[in-house]
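Go through this chain.

——
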Amino acid sequence: MSKILIIRFSALGDVAMTIPVIYSLAQEFPSHEITVLSRNSFQPLFQELPSNVHFMGVDLNGKYKGIPGLNLLYKELQAEKYDYIADFHSVLRSQYLRVRFMLDGVSTASIDKGRKEKKKLTQKNNKAFVQLKTGFRRYYEVLDKLGFRFDLSFNSVFDKKNTNFPEITAKTGEKKDIKWLGIAPFAKHTGKIYPLELQEKVIAHFAADARIKVFVFGGGEAEKNIINDWCATYPSIKSLVGTLNLSQELYLMNQLDLMYSMDSANMHLASLVNTPVISLWGATHPYAGFMGWNQTIENTIQVDLFCRPCSIYGQIPCYRKDYACLYQITPDQIINRIEHVLF
Protein backbone atom coordinates (compact mmCIF):
# COMPACT_ATOMS: atom_id res chain seq x y z
CA MET A 1 0.00 0.00 0.00
CA SER A 2 1.23 3.49 -0.88
CA LYS A 3 0.16 6.87 0.45
CA ILE A 4 -0.32 9.62 -2.14
CA LEU A 5 -0.79 13.31 -1.39
CA ILE A 6 -2.41 15.43 -4.12
CA ILE A 7 -2.20 19.21 -3.75
CA ARG A 8 -4.60 21.64 -5.45
CA PHE A 9 -5.67 24.72 -3.50
CA SER A 10 -7.84 26.67 -5.98
CA ALA A 11 -9.99 27.65 -7.83
CA LEU A 12 -13.36 25.87 -7.70
CA GLY A 13 -13.45 24.99 -11.40
CA ASP A 14 -9.84 23.81 -11.39
CA VAL A 15 -10.37 21.72 -8.27
CA ALA A 16 -13.51 20.22 -9.84
CA MET A 17 -11.40 19.17 -12.82
CA THR A 18 -9.26 17.00 -10.53
CA ILE A 19 -12.22 14.76 -9.68
CA PRO A 20 -12.30 12.54 -12.81
CA VAL A 21 -8.57 11.90 -12.47
CA ILE A 22 -8.56 11.24 -8.72
CA TYR A 23 -11.67 9.07 -8.95
CA SER A 24 -10.12 6.97 -11.72
CA LEU A 25 -6.84 6.65 -9.79
CA ALA A 26 -8.69 5.49 -6.68
CA GLN A 27 -10.67 2.91 -8.65
CA GLU A 28 -7.56 1.50 -10.31
CA PHE A 29 -5.51 1.37 -7.09
CA PRO A 30 -7.99 0.58 -4.29
CA SER A 31 -5.25 -0.44 -1.84
CA HIS A 32 -3.53 2.95 -2.02
CA GLU A 33 -4.53 5.79 0.30
CA ILE A 34 -5.08 9.07 -1.52
CA THR A 35 -5.29 12.37 0.35
CA VAL A 36 -6.38 15.57 -1.37
CA LEU A 37 -5.05 18.78 0.17
CA SER A 38 -7.21 21.80 -0.68
CA ARG A 39 -9.27 24.61 0.79
CA ASN A 40 -11.95 23.68 3.32
CA SER A 41 -14.82 24.91 1.17
CA PHE A 42 -14.13 22.35 -1.57
CA GLN A 43 -14.69 19.31 0.65
CA PRO A 44 -18.18 18.53 -0.74
CA LEU A 45 -16.66 17.79 -4.15
CA PHE A 46 -14.88 14.78 -2.70
CA GLN A 47 -17.44 13.26 -0.36
CA GLU A 48 -18.84 10.80 -2.93
CA LEU A 49 -15.47 9.51 -4.12
CA PRO A 50 -14.18 5.97 -3.39
CA SER A 51 -13.43 5.18 0.23
CA ASN A 52 -9.66 5.28 -0.27
CA VAL A 53 -9.84 9.01 -1.07
CA HIS A 54 -9.54 11.33 1.91
CA PHE A 55 -9.83 15.11 2.04
CA MET A 56 -7.74 17.49 4.11
CA GLY A 57 -9.03 21.04 4.20
CA VAL A 58 -6.72 23.91 5.13
CA ASP A 59 -7.21 27.56 5.99
CA LEU A 60 -4.43 29.32 4.07
CA ASN A 61 -5.50 32.72 5.36
CA GLY A 62 -5.49 31.67 8.99
CA LYS A 63 -3.65 28.80 10.67
CA TYR A 64 -1.49 28.03 7.63
CA LYS A 65 -0.81 31.57 6.44
CA GLY A 66 2.65 32.56 5.23
CA ILE A 67 5.91 30.68 5.64
CA PRO A 68 5.31 29.91 9.35
CA GLY A 69 1.92 28.45 8.45
CA LEU A 70 3.38 26.38 5.60
CA ASN A 71 6.09 25.07 7.91
CA LEU A 72 3.41 23.99 10.37
CA LEU A 73 1.42 22.38 7.57
CA TYR A 74 4.52 20.59 6.31
CA LYS A 75 5.23 19.11 9.73
CA GLU A 76 1.66 17.86 10.00
CA LEU A 77 1.83 16.32 6.53
CA GLN A 78 5.28 14.87 7.17
CA ALA A 79 3.88 12.90 10.09
CA GLU A 80 1.60 11.04 7.66
CA LYS A 81 4.65 9.54 5.88
CA TYR A 82 3.46 9.99 2.30
CA ASP A 83 5.21 7.97 -0.40
CA TYR A 84 4.28 10.30 -3.26
CA ILE A 85 3.51 14.00 -3.62
CA ALA A 86 1.51 15.09 -6.69
CA ASP A 87 1.47 18.86 -7.10
CA PHE A 88 -1.56 19.63 -9.28
CA HIS A 89 -1.20 23.38 -8.71
CA SER A 90 2.45 24.48 -8.96
CA VAL A 91 2.08 27.82 -7.19
CA LEU A 92 4.40 29.17 -4.51
CA ARG A 93 2.60 27.41 -1.64
CA SER A 94 2.46 24.00 -3.28
CA GLN A 95 5.99 24.36 -4.66
CA TYR A 96 7.31 25.12 -1.19
CA LEU A 97 5.67 22.01 0.25
CA ARG A 98 6.79 19.86 -2.69
CA VAL A 99 10.41 20.97 -2.38
CA ARG A 100 10.39 20.23 1.36
CA PHE A 101 9.20 16.71 0.65
CA MET A 102 11.65 16.29 -2.21
CA LEU A 103 14.53 17.22 0.11
CA ASP A 104 13.27 14.50 2.43
CA GLY A 105 13.63 11.96 -0.37
CA VAL A 106 9.93 11.61 -1.15
CA SER A 107 8.96 11.04 -4.80
CA THR A 108 7.36 14.22 -6.16
CA ALA A 109 5.98 15.51 -9.46
CA SER A 110 4.25 18.71 -10.53
CA ILE A 111 1.92 19.88 -13.26
CA ASP A 112 3.14 21.34 -16.54
CA LYS A 113 0.70 24.19 -17.09
CA GLY A 114 1.76 24.69 -20.71
CA ARG A 115 2.31 28.41 -20.34
CA LYS A 116 4.23 28.79 -23.61
CA GLU A 117 1.59 27.14 -25.79
CA LYS A 118 -1.18 29.01 -23.99
CA LYS A 119 0.60 32.27 -24.70
CA LYS A 120 0.80 31.34 -28.39
CA LEU A 121 -2.89 30.45 -28.41
CA THR A 122 -3.92 33.81 -26.96
CA GLN A 123 -1.42 36.19 -28.56
CA LYS A 124 -2.86 39.00 -30.67
CA ASN A 125 -0.97 38.15 -33.85
CA ASN A 126 0.05 34.84 -35.41
CA LYS A 127 -1.94 32.67 -33.04
CA ALA A 128 -1.06 28.98 -32.81
CA PHE A 129 -4.73 28.03 -33.02
CA VAL A 130 -4.61 24.38 -31.97
CA GLN A 131 -6.22 22.19 -29.33
CA LEU A 132 -4.02 22.08 -26.24
CA LYS A 133 -3.90 19.35 -23.62
CA THR A 134 -6.91 19.32 -21.36
CA GLY A 135 -6.59 20.08 -17.69
CA PHE A 136 -7.57 16.47 -17.04
CA ARG A 137 -4.64 15.26 -19.13
CA ARG A 138 -2.23 17.60 -17.37
CA TYR A 139 -3.35 16.27 -13.97
CA TYR A 140 -3.03 12.68 -15.21
CA GLU A 141 0.51 13.33 -16.41
CA VAL A 142 1.58 14.34 -12.90
CA LEU A 143 0.56 10.91 -11.64
CA ASP A 144 2.07 9.26 -14.68
CA LYS A 145 5.43 10.82 -13.77
CA LEU A 146 5.10 9.09 -10.40
CA GLY A 147 4.51 5.73 -12.10
CA PHE A 148 0.72 5.52 -11.89
CA ARG A 149 -0.91 4.57 -15.18
CA PHE A 150 -4.64 4.01 -15.47
CA ASP A 151 -7.68 4.64 -17.62
CA LEU A 152 -9.75 7.76 -17.02
CA SER A 153 -12.92 5.80 -16.39
CA PHE A 154 -14.89 8.38 -14.42
CA ASN A 155 -18.57 8.90 -15.24
CA SER A 156 -20.27 10.63 -12.30
CA VAL A 157 -19.78 11.21 -8.60
CA PHE A 158 -23.25 9.72 -8.13
CA ASP A 159 -24.08 6.12 -8.96
CA LYS A 160 -27.58 6.80 -10.23
CA LYS A 161 -28.75 9.69 -12.39
CA ASN A 162 -32.26 9.90 -10.89
CA THR A 163 -31.42 9.39 -7.25
CA ASN A 164 -33.87 11.26 -5.03
CA PHE A 165 -32.40 13.67 -2.49
CA PRO A 166 -35.14 14.70 -0.02
CA GLU A 167 -33.02 17.55 1.39
CA ILE A 168 -33.47 19.60 -1.78
CA THR A 169 -37.01 18.59 -2.71
CA ALA A 170 -38.50 21.07 -0.25
CA LYS A 171 -36.67 23.86 -2.06
CA THR A 172 -37.11 22.67 -5.64
CA GLY A 173 -40.39 20.75 -5.62
CA GLU A 174 -40.95 17.35 -7.23
CA LYS A 175 -39.60 16.97 -10.72
CA LYS A 176 -42.57 15.11 -12.19
CA ASP A 177 -42.83 15.14 -16.00
CA ILE A 178 -41.26 18.46 -16.95
CA LYS A 179 -37.71 19.19 -18.01
CA TRP A 180 -35.37 20.82 -15.52
CA LEU A 181 -33.03 23.41 -17.02
CA GLY A 182 -30.21 24.99 -15.05
CA ILE A 183 -28.93 28.39 -16.15
CA ALA A 184 -25.62 29.68 -14.80
CA PRO A 185 -25.35 33.15 -16.36
CA PHE A 186 -22.30 34.44 -14.52
CA ALA A 187 -18.55 33.93 -14.45
CA LYS A 188 -15.63 35.54 -12.65
CA HIS A 189 -14.60 37.78 -15.56
CA THR A 190 -16.53 40.02 -17.96
CA GLY A 191 -15.03 38.33 -21.02
CA LYS A 192 -16.90 35.14 -20.15
CA ILE A 193 -20.34 36.59 -19.34
CA TYR A 194 -23.02 36.77 -22.02
CA PRO A 195 -24.47 40.33 -21.92
CA LEU A 196 -27.23 40.39 -19.35
CA GLU A 197 -29.74 42.19 -21.58
CA LEU A 198 -29.38 39.35 -24.10
CA GLN A 199 -29.28 36.70 -21.41
CA GLU A 200 -32.61 37.93 -20.14
CA LYS A 201 -34.17 37.14 -23.52
CA VAL A 202 -33.04 33.54 -23.16
CA ILE A 203 -34.45 33.37 -19.65
CA ALA A 204 -37.72 34.97 -20.72
CA HIS A 205 -38.18 32.41 -23.48
CA PHE A 206 -37.83 29.40 -21.21
CA ALA A 207 -39.73 31.00 -18.34
CA ALA A 208 -42.74 31.04 -20.66
CA ASP A 209 -42.39 27.38 -21.64
CA ALA A 210 -44.65 25.22 -19.47
CA ARG A 211 -42.64 22.12 -20.40
CA ILE A 212 -39.59 23.45 -18.55
CA LYS A 213 -38.68 24.51 -15.02
CA VAL A 214 -35.76 26.95 -14.88
CA PHE A 215 -33.27 27.14 -12.01
CA VAL A 216 -30.84 30.06 -12.03
CA PHE A 217 -27.46 29.62 -10.34
CA GLY A 218 -25.32 32.41 -8.94
CA GLY A 219 -23.58 33.75 -5.87
CA GLY A 220 -22.78 37.01 -4.16
CA GLU A 221 -24.92 40.08 -3.58
CA ALA A 222 -24.61 41.60 -7.06
CA GLU A 223 -25.64 38.39 -8.83
CA LYS A 224 -28.40 37.83 -6.30
CA ASN A 225 -29.91 41.24 -7.05
CA ILE A 226 -29.88 40.64 -10.81
CA ILE A 227 -31.46 37.21 -10.45
CA ASN A 228 -34.07 38.54 -8.03
CA ASP A 229 -35.06 41.16 -10.60
CA TRP A 230 -35.46 38.41 -13.20
CA CYS A 231 -37.53 36.34 -10.78
CA ALA A 232 -39.81 39.30 -10.14
CA THR A 233 -40.34 39.70 -13.90
CA TYR A 234 -40.59 35.96 -14.63
CA PRO A 235 -42.15 34.32 -11.55
CA SER A 236 -41.89 30.80 -12.96
CA ILE A 237 -38.09 30.71 -12.62
CA LYS A 238 -36.35 29.73 -9.39
CA SER A 239 -33.34 31.51 -7.92
CA LEU A 240 -30.83 29.29 -6.13
CA VAL A 241 -28.62 32.07 -4.76
CA GLY A 242 -28.05 31.44 -1.06
CA THR A 243 -30.53 28.55 -0.90
CA LEU A 244 -28.29 25.53 -1.40
CA ASN A 245 -24.81 24.63 -0.23
CA LEU A 246 -22.26 23.10 -2.61
CA SER A 247 -23.31 19.52 -1.83
CA GLN A 248 -26.94 20.33 -2.46
CA GLU A 249 -26.13 22.14 -5.71
CA LEU A 250 -24.42 18.97 -6.93
CA TYR A 251 -27.49 16.96 -5.95
CA LEU A 252 -29.72 19.33 -7.90
CA MET A 253 -27.42 19.34 -10.93
CA ASN A 254 -27.69 15.57 -10.85
CA GLN A 255 -31.42 15.98 -11.44
CA LEU A 256 -31.16 18.50 -14.26
CA ASP A 257 -31.86 17.48 -17.82
CA LEU A 258 -29.49 20.19 -19.03
CA MET A 259 -27.20 22.91 -17.71
CA TYR A 260 -26.63 26.06 -19.76
CA SER A 261 -23.52 27.76 -18.45
CA MET A 262 -20.78 30.20 -19.20
CA ASP A 263 -17.18 28.95 -19.16
CA SER A 264 -17.33 28.77 -15.38
CA ALA A 265 -17.21 26.48 -12.36
CA ASN A 266 -20.85 25.52 -12.85
CA MET A 267 -19.98 23.99 -16.20
CA HIS A 268 -17.52 21.72 -14.40
CA LEU A 269 -19.83 20.92 -11.50
CA ALA A 270 -22.61 19.78 -13.83
CA SER A 271 -20.09 17.71 -15.75
CA LEU A 272 -19.16 15.86 -12.55
CA VAL A 273 -22.69 14.48 -12.28
CA ASN A 274 -22.88 13.51 -15.97
CA THR A 275 -25.41 16.21 -16.83
CA PRO A 276 -25.23 17.55 -20.40
CA VAL A 277 -23.89 21.09 -20.56
CA ILE A 278 -24.33 23.74 -23.21
CA SER A 279 -21.45 26.11 -22.61
CA LEU A 280 -21.01 29.62 -23.99
CA TRP A 281 -17.50 30.89 -24.77
CA GLY A 282 -16.49 34.49 -25.39
CA ALA A 283 -12.95 35.69 -24.74
CA THR A 284 -11.87 32.16 -23.80
CA HIS A 285 -11.89 29.03 -25.95
CA PRO A 286 -12.21 25.25 -25.44
CA TYR A 287 -8.83 24.87 -27.18
CA ALA A 288 -7.16 26.04 -23.96
CA GLY A 289 -8.19 22.73 -22.38
CA PHE A 290 -10.81 23.76 -19.85
CA MET A 291 -14.02 22.30 -21.24
CA GLY A 292 -16.10 20.18 -18.85
CA TRP A 293 -15.55 16.45 -18.46
CA ASN A 294 -17.11 14.43 -21.31
CA GLN A 295 -18.78 17.52 -22.76
CA THR A 296 -18.88 17.84 -26.54
CA ILE A 297 -17.79 20.59 -28.89
CA GLU A 298 -21.23 20.38 -30.52
CA ASN A 299 -22.71 21.77 -27.31
CA THR A 300 -20.44 24.81 -27.21
CA ILE A 301 -21.76 28.17 -28.39
CA GLN A 302 -19.14 30.52 -29.79
CA VAL A 303 -18.29 32.67 -32.81
CA ASP A 304 -15.18 32.44 -34.93
CA LEU A 305 -13.17 35.65 -34.66
CA PHE A 306 -9.51 36.29 -35.43
CA CYS A 307 -9.03 37.71 -31.94
CA ARG A 308 -10.32 34.64 -30.06
CA PRO A 309 -9.17 33.56 -27.63
CA CYS A 310 -7.57 36.67 -26.22
CA SER A 311 -6.97 35.17 -22.77
CA ILE A 312 -7.05 31.86 -20.97
CA TYR A 313 -9.27 33.00 -18.09
CA GLY A 314 -11.21 35.89 -19.65
CA GLN A 315 -9.70 38.54 -17.39
CA ILE A 316 -8.11 40.73 -20.10
CA PRO A 317 -10.28 43.67 -21.23
CA CYS A 318 -11.42 43.54 -24.86
CA TYR A 319 -8.90 45.50 -26.93
CA ARG A 320 -11.57 45.95 -29.62
CA LYS A 321 -13.78 47.57 -26.95
CA ASP A 322 -16.90 45.84 -28.31
CA TYR A 323 -16.83 42.27 -26.92
CA ALA A 324 -17.90 41.01 -30.33
CA CYS A 325 -17.16 37.48 -29.15
CA LEU A 326 -20.21 37.79 -26.90
CA TYR A 327 -22.48 40.28 -28.66
CA GLN A 328 -22.34 38.41 -31.97
CA ILE A 329 -24.02 35.42 -30.33
CA THR A 330 -27.78 35.80 -30.63
CA PRO A 331 -30.32 34.66 -28.04
CA ASP A 332 -31.97 32.54 -30.75
CA GLN A 333 -28.75 30.58 -31.24
CA ILE A 334 -28.75 29.69 -27.56
CA ILE A 335 -32.46 28.96 -27.42
CA ASN A 336 -32.33 26.71 -30.46
CA ARG A 337 -29.41 24.72 -29.11
CA ILE A 338 -31.05 24.25 -25.71
CA GLU A 339 -34.29 23.10 -27.27
CA HIS A 340 -32.42 20.74 -29.58
CA VAL A 341 -30.83 19.00 -26.60
CA LEU A 342 -33.92 19.00 -24.39
CA PHE A 343 -36.41 17.87 -27.00
Remarks:
- The chain has two domains: 3-145, 170-342.
